[in-house]
Amino acid sequence: MVDYIARDGVALLQVNNPPVNALSHHVRVAIEEGLKKAGQDPRIKSIVISGKGSFIAGADIKDVSKPTILELCDLIESSGKPVVAAIKGFALGGGHEIAISCHYRIAHEKSKFGFPEVDIGILPAAGGTQRFPRLVGLEAALDLIPSGRHIGAAQAFKLGIVDKVVRGDAVEEAVKFAKSIAGEPLVDRRTSQRPVMGAENAFLAAAVKLAMKKKKGMIAPIVCLSVSFMGSLLPFEQGIQVEAAEAVVVFTSGQMGALQYAFFAQRAAPKWLLPCGASFKTVKGRPIRNAAVIGAGTMGTGITMAMLNAGIPVTLVEQDRKFLDKGVSLLKLLYAGSVSLRKITQDQCDAILSKLNTAVGYKSLTNVDLVIEAVYENMALKKQIFAELDRICPPETFLWTNTSALDIDEIASATRRPDKVLGTHFFVPAYHMKLLENVRGKLTSAETVASAQMFGTRIGKIPVVVGNCHGFVGNRMLHKYVYEADFLIEEGCWPEDVDMVAENFGLPLGPFKVRDLSGLDIRVRGLLEQAKAAGIEINPATRFLNGERISLLSKSLVDKGHCGRKTGRGFYNYGKPGGKIPLNDRFIKDVIVEYCAERGIERRKVAYQEIEERLFLPLINEGFKILEEGIASKPEDIDTIWLLGYAWPRHTGGPMYYANMVGLDKIYNRICHYNELHKHSAHWQPSLLLKKLAASKTPMKDWMEVAQASSKL
Ligand SMILES: CCC/C=C/C(=O)SCCNC(=O)CCNC(=O)[C@H](O)C(C)(C)COP(=O)([O-])OP(=O)([O-])OC[C@H]1O[C@@H](n2cnc3c(N)ncnc32)[C@H](O)[C@@H]1OP(=O)([O-])[O-]
């Protein structure tokens, strides 16, 4: 676990604990033994700590509750022989704390430093909250500790974290350096003995404000701030006591479990398993050498950028030169923005754009591995495109569709290769959002699924395989939340009441602010299309569609020209078209009151708890139905989709984890309660799986066994 190599008076302790050299209990013990051995050996004059491959990515997350890294850090710092950290790859969390306890740090130019502890609900409680401000000053510490941000070697050097940045082998350089400083005094190299530079109140207020915005609802960042600040006013030993006391607060808050679950869920979600038994372990994907995207609108250009950024040559295709040129201009504008923000250099931008081709019509697509169609949501149009692509593209070309809800099997039926057809549901903006829902149809082959997952990872996404149903996983659950939000308004809430509850729960924006942003007319169009498909003519009095309660409140607003931010008014008043600040509006309230009066709906005061339950319980109930039907193969997939695609508050783990945390019996009983009251909303009919899990008190890790056993009955 830790190799001990003695050479020319230097003891090299090299951590060897793949995949990320996490500080498991065994590693900590081995480092301690190595330090003691080197300390006692008179031939050893100095020590180097490094990691095989990378440095150390932190504590073993499954083992963080035993913080003996603190003792290790003290042992390193108090060593009578100089200790040098040789850093390649990542020095994160406990690894970073080990590094700053060493007397010197030599880092490779590509190494990264950070305290990601806050993102898994804990503190750098191995003395990090006390040593780091003493090393870099309070202002930088109050920025880096609560943000969890990684920084590169160059910035680490500027801040004084690193003593030397090297291009070559950091370990060799560190060994050479360690030899050169043998016997030198270490007093001023012990970080804990330094005073904190710039201990000023002003930094604290600004940092708290920023943390509350960026890490909304999370306890650890705020605790980190107060502990680091308090420690800066105290001697180091007392600061350590404050750190230890406050660490208990975060360890027992419940957020630690949720955030660590989210960390592992995100890594488990790309590991797919199909009902036929094929999985990421048994089937290999085909790499994508080049691709085409059909449609140069917002989605098409975004998907094109995601592929170009990963070095995949793309042909962007439109039927009309005018639309194509518009899409390419948008794409170039976005890259120019990245250059001016210094996210990429002009040379990098040129290299990326050199991989972009354009075409009018599909004729040139005779040599592509993959086509992703990204035209607007219209089944007839998509089928027509797929039929044509099927004729033109080689038989082995994958044909994938970017849709957020449409039936993948029906699209595939337009081709002679349904096994190669799959849905790639990207989220807006597609070049930025991490989530990719890969939707398998009835006939999609395991090789296609494997290729789509491999492709997703290559373009920097977290790809999650889901089954085919209306809205797939994310939007299917979202629809229930959106319905209930509307019903709450009909029954007596104002938009701001509902938004406040959703935002207090941890979502960045409530459902009505989101609707104003995306446009009310889009939802109304969807509703009207649904009605048309069901052969129903909507009139002002309509309250049911296919036996289900619906709300036409959005339609009433759209009919009055309230389409959201773009028209300056939606559920809120924005002052002007394109305005950004939502203001409550008497006129909108009058529209709501009139709408209810016309339909004989009696408005009432709706309690906070009811708003919260009616927003989130239907969505959770739908999640259990999704598991029951095999649309998702594990709860981690659903939670990852909601964390990454819908900004679900991470410190509650995701909707499935949250349900488990609250207690499935409680969740089930409340759903039954609302089901009694709202018989005309199928989303309140409790999931059978939820009922079984609640009754059996099955732990979350075993839910799928119950789901699979039930599906076999
Ligand atoms: C009082 C205590 C004070 C100190 C606290 C701490 O240090 S808290 C810790 C502070 N540190 C952090 O929070 C750092 C967390 N880690 C990271 O941010 C990233 O892993 C990375 C940037 C190091 C590498 O990214 P990458 O994309 O190259 O790789 P990847 O992310 O896919 O991971 C590969 C595999 O390693 C696994 N695994 C990873 N880390 C840990 C861990 N600490 N533990 C256990 N396991 C870990 C991961 O699950 C995956 O397993 P799988 O699925 O293959 O079975």
TrEMBL record:
Domain 3-hydroxyacyl-CoA dehydrogenase NAD binding, first and last residues per copy: 291-468
Pathway membership, UniProt: Lipid metabolism; fatty acid beta-oxidation
Localization per record: Peroxisome
GO biological process: fatty acid beta-oxidation
3-hydroxyacyl-CoA dehydrogenase C-terminal domain sequence ranges: 471-574, 613-697
Record EC number: 1.1.1.35, 5.3.3.8
Keywords, ordered alphabetically: Fatty acid metabolism, Isomerase, Lipid metabolism, Lyase, Multifunctional enzyme, NAD, Oxidoreductase, Peroxisome
Catalytic reactions on record: (3E)-hexenoyl-CoA = (2E)-hexenoyl-CoA; (3S)-hydroxyhexadecanoyl-CoA = (2E)-hexadecenoyl-CoA + H2O; a (3S)-3-hydroxyacyl-CoA + NAD(+) = a 3-oxoacyl-CoA + NADH + H(+); (3S)-hydroxyhexanoyl-CoA = (2E)-hexenoyl-CoA + H2O
Any GO CC annotation of this UniProt entry: peroxisome
A single GO molecular function term of this UniProt record: delta(3)-delta(2)-enoyl-CoA isomerase activity
Coiled coil: none
SUPFAM superfamilies xrefs: 6-phosphogluconate dehydrogenase C-terminal domain-like, ClpP/crotonase, NAD(P)-binding Rossmann-fold domains
Signal peptide range in chain numbering: none
Subunit structure: Monomer.
Similarity comment: family membership: In the C-terminal section; belongs to the 3-hydroxyacyl-CoA dehydrogenase family.
UniProt name for this protein: Peroxisomal bifunctional enzyme
